[in-house]
Amino acid sequence: MTAAQDLRIPSRGEQLAAYLYRPRDPGPSPCIVMAHGFCGTRDDGLPPYAEAFRDAGYVVVLFDYRHFGASTGRPRQLLDIRRQQQDYHSVVEWARRQDGIDPDRIVLWGSSFSGGHVLAVAADDPRIAAVISQAPFTDSIAALRQVPLRTAAALTVDGVRDQLEAWRGRPPRLAPAIGDPGDIAAMTSPGARPGYEAIVGGDSLWRNAFAARLMLRFPFYRPGRKASRLQMPLLVCVCDNDTTTPPGPTEKAAHRALRGELRRYPYDHFDIYSDPQVKTDQIDFLRRVLPEGAPRPA
């Protein structure tokens, strides 16, 4: 197979760094639009998924959000929920205009934080053909129950300070995305640091940091509630032992969707990235639910 093409996609005045994977079949083929979760980049554990989808006959666009990785956007490490959802929409609209891509067979794929994003994005775009949401963040209230009170308080204070400084035009106050138990960081479960570090690619531009102002908006983000608006097929892959994105709200989101399917795996949050069976299950789902002309097995 040919290597992925490294390209740039415009989004709200910035340039999104993306890898474009094309199968042998010239198309028009279904296209899977992918992005990472909390502070992740396109090089962190996702190329094996993109390659598996490409080998199964799908076009794949794997991109970095604005402010992260190889994409443009200042300040760096600004994790803005609305902007990240806008970036998904920008990539989808770009993909619909490309030769070799069927504009009516665009699939959204997300994992962890982006697993919630794809539910919200698909709810606003009924033309999306299918959605895959892996170990998704679906409810901030359930997630915050996993965060020690001391950590939540410290991050909130940092968030207020960061927002005040942002209004004054100052650089962002950064907080760690992952840490060990007892650290002040967004994710501090026992498996968070080793799990995240295990998927960071050798050439990754990943940084363990995000602008703390996110914590002023994070408690209100509950994308699982959008699942009831989805008319397209939805596959939710839930990790039964997940201590980062609790499985309870995720299961409810899958059941809210008109055409939702739930697959369970005996993992913690990051273990799912290393299981080839997960990729096989997702490809099987796509072959079942996409309209006529879905790719044949490679």
Summarize the structure in words:
InterPro entries: AB_hydrolase_fold (IPR029058), FrsA_esterase (IPR050261), Xaa-Pro-like_dom (IPR000383). One of its GO terms (molecular function) is carboxylic ester hydrolase activity. Belongs to the AB hydrolase superfamily. It is built from 8 helices and 10 strands. It is α/β, with parallel strands linked by helices and 298 residues long. It has a domain of 205 residues: Rossmann fold. It is globular.
Going by helix content, strand content and strand pairing, the class is: alpha/beta
What is the fold-level CATH name, i.e. the topology of one domain?
Answer: Rossmann fold
Q: What is the highest CATH level, the class of one domain?
A: Alpha Beta
- The side-by-side strand order for the widest beta sheet comes to 1-2-4-3-5-6-9-10
Number of strands: 10
Radius of gyration: 18 Å
Report on the biggest sheet. Answer: 8 strands, mixed
SSE string: EEEHEHEHEHHEHEEHEH
Give the CATH H-level superfamily of one domain: Alpha/Beta hydrolase fold, catalytic domain
Helix amount, in percent? 25-40%
The count of helical stretches stands at 8
CATH architecture of one domain: 3-Layer(aba) Sandwich
Shape: globular
Low-confidence stretches: none
In whole angstroms, the N-to-C terminal distance is: 12 Å
Mean pLDDT: 94
Strand content: 15-25%
Write the layout of secondary structure elements.
Elements: E1 5-11, E2 14-21, E3 29-35, H1 47-55, E4 59-63, H2 81-96, E5 101-111, H3 113-123, E6 130-134, H4 140-144, H5 149-167, E7 174-175, H6 192-199, E8 210-211, E9 234-239, H7 247-256, E10 260-265, H8 276-289
Parallel strand pairs: 3-4, 3-5, 5-6, 6-9, 9-10
Antiparallel strand pairs: 1-2, 2-4, 7-8
